[in-house]
Batch of 2 targets.
Target 1
Amino acid sequence: MSNGSLRVQRISLRRRVVNGMVTYGALGASVLVIVPLVAIFGYLLMKGIGSINWAFLTQIPKPVGEPGGGMGNAIVGSAIILLIASLFGIPLGIGAGIYLAEFGRNKLGNLVRFTSDVLNGVPSIVVGISVYGLVVVTQKHFSALAGGVALGIMMIPTVARSTEEMLLMVPRTIREAAWGLGVPQWRTTLSVTLKTASAGVITGTMLAFARAAGETAPLLFTAFGNQFWNWNLNQPTAALPLQVYVYAISPFDEWHRQAWAGALVLILLIVAAVTAVRVVTSRGMYRAS
Amino acid sequence: MPNTPHAGAIAQVQAKPLPIRSPFASRFADTGFRGVIVLCALSVLAIVVLIAWQLIVHSELSLKQFGLKFFFSSDWDPVSGEFGALPFVFGTIVSSMLALVIAVPLSVAAAVFITEMCPGWLKTPLSFLMELLAAIPSVIYGLWAIFILAPILRTYVEPFLGKYFAWTGLFSGPTYGIGMLAAGIILAIMIVPIVSSITREVMTAVPQQQREAVLALGATRWEMIRTGVLRNARTGIIGGVILGLGRALGETMAVTMVIGNRAEIAKSLFAPGYTMASVIANEFSEATDNLYLSAIIEIGLALFLVTLIVNIIAQGLVWASTRGMPARAQA
């Protein structure tokens, strides 16, 4: 490249070698990036699958030293917290997304878009301590409710931005067709635009849900964890990722074994939830069309 | 948006608008709907303001007591009421930088491979696997790092580095496996998908003619990628790197599980360290007196402000390089 001569009969050996090295280097980097993924899933299956049984899924933890016990309460706790988070985060997120797509071509829209990206970048632990101040201090104790609020806040930006993106992909002519028939704006947005984009909106929502399901840091000081069954929304509640964390940093082999099993269950539940919603919605779409 | 171009045309054809059954109810419903939607949008603003407000209010005590000295003192002694965040700031910066040093070359190379080199049938599965890496919960990365990565570092990698690179001063002392190096590596694995997907996005946004023009001048494929693609995409790639930095700075669980959690400043990467996010995770529930609690929340406030600034810069750079268009539009 530094050689400015015009004799360009053939590409010099050096340039060919560099080109080949870069090609194999890039290939190697791609393989290297995939290795941890394979290793993580491999170890999860290898170390977790042996410890998953009916007792693990239905019982509460046993005290240290006693074998057996399970994470039944943590699975139920996670479900409760995620339900609260979804009830709070998904409607707000979709609403904000509708605003950004349908009314958001102005200063307020840009501000909301920017703020939502900011919220997306706020570390989850910081969301945790803020919700501690807002909910836990007000209520005077840890609760499933506080955990749900924290995870709900984490879901909002993802849901909002993906909803916006999906709604913008709906052709303007479809909205105009609805207006032309005299359908009011609210009805157009909800039953025409949002419905057309529903598959994409649901996918975005599921991604946010899956991310929230694995979050641990925001639950440390909100849901807090619990060794027993708890159905009261105003009491400390166990959650699967929290339980995995506590067991993983404990010094007991039996708990390490359960941490692997819990992590595997967590991944499987996330995958199952995402797949289930995909299947159900795709069938619904098929019937509608 | 009722003022469409078509509205005018229809009005010309038909002097009177069609009778609407109940104009009042309809207009009322539209106004109400719009109100609800605006409220949803405003809630996003309200949440960010509430977060900032909570952090400021609850860290007031520590802000007043220590001032700026807080971030330049390395005494962290809850018993005597002395709080300085320097070891945590140091740990956060070192672990994130280490993660960038490892992750950036790998993710850019992987992105180059996926967008420019790999055969078409491999493109989608490879990208999918990378996205999958981003979906693994942080606590599972931590679990894997404690039981698999740390022992590998302890028995193979760290003795090797200690033997041949001890002269740098970065790789000396006892090899625990757990420590700054482990934290940097696990952070690197976690930010690769982010940096790589944004790099792919901005590389795809480079016009195809750029590539063809450079190739027509007789460049090899690598020369084409370097001068035609990477040079055009560099702003966006830097944006992606900074976005990855933002994620690394705030990452909590995986780092807390492997960094060793000791509040000291050591030159060796084998030594245990502590980050801002991990000190919050570990000590928040132990903080009994108000000053201790507000010192921890002040660390949270600092973390919030730093990630805020980092993310703003990153968004700006990525936007400038894709012109605000999603990659899909150019594909």
Note: Strands of chain B lie at 76-77, 82-83.
Target 2
Amino acid sequence: MTAMKVYLKTIICLIVSTHLLIGFGLCRDDYDYIDITNPFLRKIPIAIPVFKKISIDDTSTKLSKEASDLLSKTLEFTGYFKIMDRDAFLLDPQNGAALSDVKFHNWTSIGAELLLTGGVVIENDHLEIELRLYDTFKEQMLLGKRYKGGMVDQRKMIRRFCSELIYLLTGDMGIFNSKIAFVSTSSGHKEIYICDFDGYNPKRLTNHKNITLSPAWSSDGNWLAYTSYAKGKPDLYIKHLTENRSSVIAKEGINISPAWVPGEFLLTATLSFSGDPEIYMLTGTGKMIKRLTNKRGIDVSPTWSPDGKKMAFVSKRAGSPQIYIKDIDSGRVNRLTFEGHYNTQPSWSPKGDKIAYSGMKQGLGDIHVIGTDGQNPTQLTHNEGNNESASWSPDGSLIVFTSTREGLSRIYVMTAFGTDQRRLVAISGKQTEPHWSPRLSTIH
Amino acid sequence: MRKKLWIKLILLLIIPGFLFTVSCTKKAVTSDTEVTQPIEEKDLKAKEAAEKARQEELARQRAIEEERLKEEAAKREAARNQFLTQDIYFDFDSFSILPEAQEILSDKAEWLQDNSDATVTIEGHCDERGTIEYNLALGDRRAESAKAYLVNLGIAESRLNTISYGEERPMDPSNNENAWGKNRRAHFLKN
């Protein structure tokens, strides 16, 4: 009898301990900081105290505040975090304690789940920033980096750390090394401008002194295609951004709405030299490859799936402008949008599963998102002027678009779920047609 | 010796004297004609009057001709102005030629036939609603529709160019139905 009891006891112990082990393992895997299915439902509270200045002078006081504010703004831009108010902090991190000496209960007690501390050293013209990310409840450091460079490299350093941070939390490098091209009338004519992903530093790119429209980034980020009336009619320009190389497609009629094929030096555009606007595929140097649409009426605004196998576009073939998807291999074309009488400007998410577009009702446009299978059409903007020209961030988490909700057309950004809508850029004139670049190879 | 000198002197005096008498004789002739003058004057005057009348008639004819030319030029100018300023309009999201537009296009075809060496550019425009790229394509179709209509009326295709401005160059930048109606148009330019 006792032998049996012992035997049973050991079996029960074994079962319980394996469950504990498996359970622990499961907990480890399930602990996601950011829920990928809807990352914006719950923002993670993160505390970012002012960075500690390690050298004693006024410049480093100013700079440590600037750097910590920039880091807060950059992380806030992603929409994943709730940046905690510094007034709620229980202690002043400038006092005493070395950087590595963190009293976690001071942070967990105010509800911070993540803590980001930093230290700044300035010597002559050299800048050194040390940054650490902690999980306050687990009381462990998740990420620690030290950057050295010139004073001008501050923004670059902050962005690089943010890329590492986001990669750690989501498995994706994020958007910190991307830019946005857009059209603005600031100079008196529509020209193309480029700014950083957060709207910083907008700079004019073109100088055609004539109507210039529809910028489109190539998938390696080195080329920009656009339409300009520089020579008196709408021609398509393909311009290298750093080297002095360019091509022009100047066929009779309109040469408009360029969109690059992912991973290739190819683009699609609408040309009307045949007498009817149709979509064609061309090389990056402007050589014709083939015609992709074949229906009388208007075919315009191509956008590609990230795997390069499908193309969505706008066609009037059924009477009113609607969005269609063409499978490149089979050649089959299926209609995607059935709600509303005017659906245009599709933009395919880099995640591959959704398409954003402009749906117009009673003269005003709104941004909608629909599954590529046609499921769940959702309206993201409501009753706020005219909203159009949606373009996805390279990680598919944010959408940039234009809105006239404040009067003149301006560039706005929101999460993929329509939350946190805010203005991104405001320079003189009207801004239109933003296009978000892919991740650029270096952080500029 | 002295005699010869005297003779020479006398000759010097006499010869110019002869010359004077000759001129005097001329005068004598004139006085002869003066006598006959009244008759000739009359003829001259009649002639002059006739000439004057003829000139006046010519001037009058010229004035009438100028007037006619001016009128014709004005008419041509008016027809040209009408050709250049009278636009045709379209319904929302449409590039069909409406009945009113058809009449206007007939007038334009007439002008093109009267001015057979003129080449023309047809601009297609849209109102601000809808998206920039779609409207560029719609403007293109509107210009092409107008061109096709004129070609059907007998105008050579090579004389007609088209260009689309989409929503980029509105006639009226206001945001109301009235402005939108004015902007959905095709406009004609002489090259």
Note: Helices of chain B lie at 2-85, 99-114, 132-152, 177-183.
